[in-house]
Amino acid sequence: MVDVSLYPHLRSGIPDKYICLEEAFKENEIDEIFERFKPFVTEHQIFPIMAGYGNQTICIGSGKENFGQVYYYDFDFGAFCLGCSLSEFCNSLVKSDGKL
């Protein structure tokens, strides 16, 4: 799970305390998944890499200015830069019982 309190912009933008992640997208499915998300994420120059419950996704920046930065994207709330690399993001994840 993602502890929302670790990301000030996200904490002020969504009501959740945690974001529950369901899966990392498989390499052989990524092109199809991107095509479904393309109309929503292209303007932010982000690429979906993980799915959460509902309309939540974790994305990675793919533009010149945001390359490699991790983003949270929700169809209801929009895109939020988490200000970290993928390795930093993965290291900050917590198990569903709230422990590291």
In short:
Helices cover 25% and strands 30% of the residues. With 100 residues, the chain is an alpha+beta fold. Strand 4 and strand 5 form a beta hairpin.
Give an overview of the whole structure.
The protein has helices spanning 8-13, 30-41, 86-92, and strands at residues 2-3, 18-19, 21-24, 46-52, 56-61, 70-74, 78-81. The protein has 100 residues and is of the alpha+beta class. It has one domain. A 5-stranded antiparallel sheet has the order 3-4-5-6-7. The protein has a two-stranded antiparallel sheet with strand order 1-2. It starts with a strand and ends in an 8-residue tail after the last helix. The mean pLDDT is 91.
Strand element count: 7
Q: What does the main sheet amount to?
A: 5 strands, antiparallel
Helix and strand element order? EHEEHEEEEH
Structural class: alpha+beta
Our estimate of the beta-strand percent is 25-35%
Cα distance spanning the termini:
10 Å
- The domain count comes to 1
In which range does the helix fraction lie? Answer: 25-40%
Count of individual helical segments: 3
Q: Give the low-pLDDT segments.
A: none
| Strand adjacency order, main sheet | 3-4-5-6-7
Rg (C-alpha, Å) = 13 Å
> Could you say which overall geometry the principal axes of the C-alpha atoms support?
globular
Roughly what is the average pLDDT, rounded to an integer?
A: 91
List the SSEs and their pairings.
Elements lengths: L1 E2 L4 H6 L4 E2 L1 E4 L5 H12 L4 E7 L3 E6 L8 E5 L3 E4 L4 H7 L8
Antiparallel strand pairs: 1-2, 3-4, 4-5, 5-6, 6-7
Key terms:
two-stranded antiparallel sheet; globular; alpha+beta; about 100 residues; five-stranded antiparallel β-sheet; about 30% strand; 3 helices
